[in-house]
Amino acid sequence: MDALHEELKRWFGYDEFRPGQEEIIRTLLSGQDVLGIMTTGAGKSLCYQLPALMLPGLTLVISPLIALMQDQVQNLERRGIHCATFLNSSLTKREIVERMEGIRNGRYKIVYIAPERIRSREFMTLLSRTQVSLLVVDEAHCISEWGHDFRTDYLLIGSLRERIGQVPIMALTATATKEVQEDITVQLGIEDGARIIMGYDRPNLAFIFRRETTVENKYKEAVAFLRGQRGCGIIYTSSRGECEEFARLLRQQLGEEIAFYHAGMQAEERRQIQDAFIRGKFRIVVATNAFGMGIDKPDIRFVLHLHVPSSVEAYYQEAGRAGRDGKPSICMTIFTQRDRGIHHFFLKKEFPSEAEVDRLAQRLIDLHTEGEAVRIRWREFAGIQGFTEEKVSLLLHIWEQQGVLLIEEMDSQDAVVRFEKNAFAKKRNEVLMTISRLKLRRYGKLHSMVELLAAEGCRRQAILRYFGQEGFARPHPCCDRCDPGLLTGCYTPGPVDRYPWRDVLREILPADPPVVMPRLAKTEGEEAYAIGEARDEAGLPRLYELLKSPSVNTRRMAVSAIGKIRRAESVPYLLTLLKDVNPQVRQYTLKALRKIGDRQAKSYVEEMLKREDKEYNIREAQAILKEWSG
Ligand code: ADP
């Protein structure tokens, strides 16, 4: 047995690594940054936990899943590993102080934090005096605006790395399209690191999509399906009301205890239900998408969606909770046209309207005293009609991104911000545009999900293709298209009706704002990506053409690809993009120029620096000029 296997046995009691784990760990231990993509349940945690225990200093794990941190720490403790802890807003001030003290004394090897911790000056000071050996970014897709679960706080991670120095980074996720991968590596500055992609296929899952014409039929089909299921399962509904109602219906129809779970319930109650489900106290839970993050229950035999999920990523993550033990499991989706409107409702609730942006700005201005910071108490602000905490937080981040204000502190109670009164009016348009852009992306994601449900041919192939995977070995059973008799014996579906996707699309997508179908942009972006990955010089003329695309994404991907090919002849083509209206494109351009390293661009970068208003671009430009000054 070699040393790494010995460590595996010693700490975790396993004899073998799961596919991908060893490669990721060895790559990291050799000093390289790694982006690792592994499906749910494949064993991502071990990829950083084992090196963390072997390396000398501290491993910092950034995760957005606050509820999960405690589970992770407890799981380690159950294995007799007592050197892990977490810092997040669920703790009291005193607990935080104690744990920080523990970090200072070297008591911990692994510390889980939520990204907003990076705003805490105390924590950053502590880190600067601590030996950090590894920085782990879990759920790394959250750093990308193009991901399904973009978290503005994740953008802080870039600045963290700058401050703690050149520490190896391991970024992990289960779902990232090529564009999202590109964003992760650029934002984290690990473009030269390794990408270890284990593929997205889950061969033991069989996929069934069914469209019903009426809601009654949807429920009838669902009950018929459930009558044939003997194992444990999760049923996802779109709303809290539907979740409770359907649980009631099932109790009556199946004559057994059925739990429900949604974000409107008390935290304690939710916790109890989750625990009882994991321990097998009941078989079936009906839930909204609030359920399942971090559910490590191996024997879930089915996941039933009774609605259209908001993105393919969200769908696959939820469906993927089935069959973690590798045994055959079913992912069934039954939906109707009526499932369309719900997303409008959520999008409306999630993103602030124009009037709301103005109202909140006015409110802040009213609280402002010249030269002083303003303290915002979440509860008070969320009390303003129509505002949720999430909405206020999103808006604060967007304002910060646009340079309107500075968030000095932020925790679960309040936020402290500093600004100048007239900045709101000056940047009003940019802020509104950012909101529409984010909203449009979400519609794009929804559109892809609708397309997936409508796609011809094999379901698995359509899912994998969305994530950019072409090849796979078709398992048996595969999906309702490949194996129409898939469920004979326990559930016999009626004839699968053809899905009039054009009609449904028209109804699901909003008339206003007009939606640019992301299809074309996506393929062009991917085309650029492929040329870059192949380092294909012959593809350069095509890339120069793509630089003129109206799509931000295409321009961004083309610039990035040009950077990878590293030819000085490309520099003149890139220079105009230093003036691109989109700050991300400018960011990618700077990075590409830096890679190519041709100093003829120097005066252009200097000139750009005079105009640039984005902090991250200013930093990058300054770094380049410094590099080129010697
Ligand atoms: P995810 O990739 O979803 O984060 P986890 O890290 O939670 O997956 O791991 C899923 C399960 O697999 C856990 O119960 C973990 O203990 C188990 N596991 C991880 N690595 C191995 C291994 N090498 N051998 C056996 N079981 C493993």
UniProtKB/TrEMBL annotation:
Name of the protein this chain belongs to: ATP-dependent DNA helicase RecQ
Chain coiled-coil ranges: none
The entry's keywords: ATP-binding, DNA-binding, Helicase, Hydrolase, Nucleotide-binding
GO cellular component, one term: chromosome
GO molecular function, one term: four-way junction helicase activity
GO BP field: DNA recombination; DNA repair
Record flagged with keyword Cell membrane: no
Span of domain Helicase C-terminal: 218-368
